[in-house]
Structures are given as C-alpha cells and as structure tokens.
Amino acid sequence: ARYERTLTLEVWYPATLQSGQKPGGEYRVITRDPAVLATLHGQAVRDAQPAKGPFPLVIISHGYPGNRFLMAHIGENLASKGYVAASIDHKDSTYDDQQNFASTLYNRAFDQLFVLNEMDRLGGAGQPFAGVIDASRSGLIGYSMGGYGVVNVIGGGYSAKPKFQNLPPNQLLEHRGAANPDYQKSRDSRIKAAIAIGPWGMQGGFWDAEGLKGIRTPVMFVAGSVDDVSGYEHGVRAIYEGAVNAPRYLLTFINANHNAAAPYPAPRESYATADPARPNSYAHYADAVWDTVRMNNIFHHFATAYFDLHLKGDAAKQAYLDVTPNGKDGVFAVDRDGKPTAKHTYWKGFKRGTAVGLILEHAKP
Hints:
By secondary structure, the chain is an alpha/beta fold. It has helices at residues 72-80, 101-122, 145-153, 181-184, 209-212, 232-242, 281-285, 292-311, and strands at 8-12, 15-16, 25-30, 37-42, 49-50, 55-61, 84-89, 93-94, 97-98, 133-143, 191-197, 219-224, 248-253, 358-363. It has an eight-stranded mixed sheet with strand order 1-7-6-10-11-12-13-14, sandwiched between helices. A two-stranded antiparallel sheet has the order 2-5.
C-alpha cells in the first residue's frame, strides 16, 4: 500500500552574512550506531540571508542506512559555489529509522522526485525560496541506495525479474519498470545531470541491458575499484557500460571500497564504538586505503566541474573533464613561470603526482 511520507531535508544555499555574522557552525548528528551522537563542524550559517539568485538545484540522497548529514560536505561546498543543495532524510532508511529494505527499494526514486517537486514549489512566487531556486536546472547526487534511486530516476527502468529475495510485494517495482509505458514517459526534463556514487543494484539484477538503454541524462558514476557492496566490474562499471544512450563518465578510486568519496570523515565519537554487538561506526565512514578528506576534496572538484558544465552552461569546465584517462599516465610539464608546456597532459587542477590512483573514463552515446 502507498502511504504519506514526511521527509526532513537539510538545505544549503548561497548566503549573504549580516554585520557581525561569522561563517561556521555545528551539526549534532546521529551516527551509524544510533546510540552515538557526533558533532560536525562546518562553514555554513543556519538561517543566513539567501543571496540573490536564482541558483540551480542539486538534490542529495544518502545510502541505506544513512542520513541527510552523511554528505554534508558536498552540500556546503556546492552552496559556496552558487547552488542550492537539498539533502534528504529518507524515511525507513536512516540510522535511527532503519526499516525493511523493501521500503527503500520501492520508495527511493519516488522520494527523490517528490523532493524535486517540493523544492520547485518552494522556489515559486510567495514561497520561502522565491527567487533563490531554479529547479529547471536540477542535478542529482546519490550514494549507494541513493545511487540506485538516481539510476532509476534518470531512465534506468527496473528489470522484470530482479535476482533478490527481499522485494516489495505485489510487483510494486513494476511501477518504475523498464517495461511500463507510463514509466518510459516519466523522465523529468528539469534534471539536467546526475552523479551516482557506488550505485547499488546491478548485482541484484535490478537492471538489464534494455533497462539501462533508457538512460539519456548526462551522468557521472563514481566508484571504488574494490567495492564489495555494489560491486565494481559487475556492478558500477556494468551500469556505466550499459548506459549506452547517455553521455557518461566513470571516476574510479583505485583500491577504494564502497565508501569512496561520499561519506564525511569518521567522527572522533565513532572511534570508541568497539562493541561487536553494535554497528561498527568507524568502518561505516572510513576506507582502508584512501584518506576520506582527500576523496571528498577530489569529489568536490569533479562535481563542481560537472554541474557547472551541465547546470550553468560553463563550457570552460569541460577542460577539467577532458583528461588522460589514467592519472598516472599524465605528464606534468611546466616552465619556470609555472605555465604548462606543450608536453603537459596532467589533470587540470591537480598538482604534480596527485592524480595517481585515479581513473576518469568518458563514453559518448
């Protein structure tokens, strides 16, 4: 049965500080172990006066479980660069409200589209974000189950027979299945670009070749090459390769696992959670190989370039995406004044040696 769902959002936006206001603030957040609270420190000021817009909209969707603060770093970063970023607490899917997985399988795409509609409404005349939000230029960021939702929202209709046990009852997934003509008509033209980080579902048979052909929205996939949750070769990479009708990128963090790029660094409060009977908070955020702050910063770099290109029409940002695919193969060659020479092929915006461990691939429709 369908039912009313109340969703809490955290919204970051470009703002103008008043006299005496200083940037910075704290977030009190529930961690992977719901019994443990943590304090995050950011640059945003709550309820600051919005700057004059309108600004493109980016919707952020966490994994299972997660919450609206899990990717607060990219929310703040995008707001500082001229975007409104709305991050969702997905009901039945947060650390303190983790219900049957079937609910997330069914509701995730609907939640993302509902938030798009509501943020569009809130940006209308007489509404709180009037003149601030331009939802006609919208983007999506989804991590893990958020990425699962993103793939479906941008045209990846579910297959008829997923290879998974805990499915929603009564064939509910067929509402957004590739074979449903109503679903095929449901692509939202307001969504101009999307980023799916470690999207879950391919190994569970939620997509097949025909379903992935429905994706036409520009999309960037982000993954760790040893992702043992969503899979890499038969998971994220398979989605990237199957989306044959979409302009697409795949950014790979070599030897990173499922936590590549998305979660904020493990808060210090999570370090002491050593009770084997309780969720391992630290492992929920951290990666065994990569430093989380570095991954977050790299993701900010590419998300900015990608959304500036597609949501703002800034063609100059294409240069940040046109790179030698394997970062280790780039040639760093500058003259005494620091200007690139003709031999320079290193990734734009990266210092010498810092693109090692990264691969950025591109495929046209």
